[in-house]
């Protein structure tokens, strides 16, 4: 039997509010994520506001697969009263979550991604999640630092040229 779907509820950190993703965030987030350099390691190119709105509509609708939860948050930087990035978790049966993060170029280097990822992993651990994984390009030192800050360690496993990072959470 499938576990109940997990939902993205607000999370507060020292500097950030992780707010559940809404379609209305697309226009501001299209600007936040507009730097092509953000796609250096993951490929692709920035979404237009309309394309990002369509993507957010799909994400907000939720995963079509039973037993899979798509949890997505935007990062609200309270001091600047603006959105600065996103974190996400795809939670599957078996208490596993795959997470990812991105912070807009103007706000990088301030520890915001690490702060958000730590909070996300902690929240997942308060739920039924026991294993958290991320896939990171081997040359992406900044994302490796975020994963390390969130308690994750690199494994020997690779998927599509990316290293699998993992942390097993205590029950």
Short description:
The chain has 171 residues and is an alpha+beta fold. It is built from 4 helices and 8 strands; from the N terminus they run ββααβββαβαββ. It has one domain (11-168): 3-Layer(aba) Sandwich (Aminopeptidase), CATH 3.40.630.30.
Describe this protein's structure.
The structure is a single chain. The protein has 171 residues and is α+β, with helices and mostly antiparallel strands. It has a single domain (11-168), classed as Gcn5-related N-acetyltransferase (GNAT) (Aminopeptidase). The chain has 4 helices and 8 strands; from the N terminus they run ββααβββαβαββ. It has helices spanning 26-32, 49-61, 112-126, 141-149, and strands at 11-12, 16-20, 68-77, 82-92, 96-103, 131-136, 153-159, 162-168. Strands 1-2-3-4-5-6-8-7 form an 8-stranded mixed β-sheet, with helices on both faces. α1 crosses α2 (49-61) and α3 (112-126) packs across α4 (141-149). The chain is globular and about 35 Å long. The model has no long low-confidence stretch (mean pLDDT 94).
**Strand content of the residues, in percent?**
25-35%
Distance between the termini: 21 Å
Rg calc: 15 Å
Q: Kindly report the spatial arrangement of strands forming the biggest sheet.
A: 1-2-3-4-5-6-8-7
Provide the domain count. Answer: 1
What is the CATH topology? Aminopeptidase
Q: What is the CATH class?
A: Alpha Beta
Number of strands: 8
Helix vs. strand class: alpha+beta
Let me know the average pLDDT: 94
- The outline comes out as globular
Mind telling me which CATH architecture this is?
3-Layer(aba) Sandwich
Order of secondary-structure elements: EEHHEEEHEHEE
Q: How many alpha or pi helices?
A: 4
């Amino acid at each position: 039997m499938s576990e109940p779907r997990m939902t993205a509820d607000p999370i507060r950190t020292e500097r950030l509010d992780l707010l559940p993703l809404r379609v209305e965030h697309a226009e501001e987030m299209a600007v936040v994520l507009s730097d092509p350099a953000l796609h250096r390691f993951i490929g692709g190119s920035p979404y237009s506001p309309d394309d990002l709105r369509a993507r957010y509509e799909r994400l907000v609708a939720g995963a079509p697969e039973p037993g899979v939860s798509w949890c997505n948050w935007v990062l609200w930087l309270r001091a600047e009263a603006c959105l600065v990035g996103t974190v996400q978790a795809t939670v599957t049966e078996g208490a596993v979550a795959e997470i990812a993060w991105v912070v807009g170029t103007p706000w990088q280097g301030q520890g915001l991604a690490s702060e958000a990822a730590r909070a996300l992993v902690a929240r997942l651990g308060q739920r039924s999640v026991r294993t958290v994984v991320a896939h990171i390009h081997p040359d992406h030192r900044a994302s490796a630092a975020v994963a390390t800050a969130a308690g994750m360690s690199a494994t020997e496993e690779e998927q599509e040229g990316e290293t699998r990072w993992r942390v097993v959470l205590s029950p």
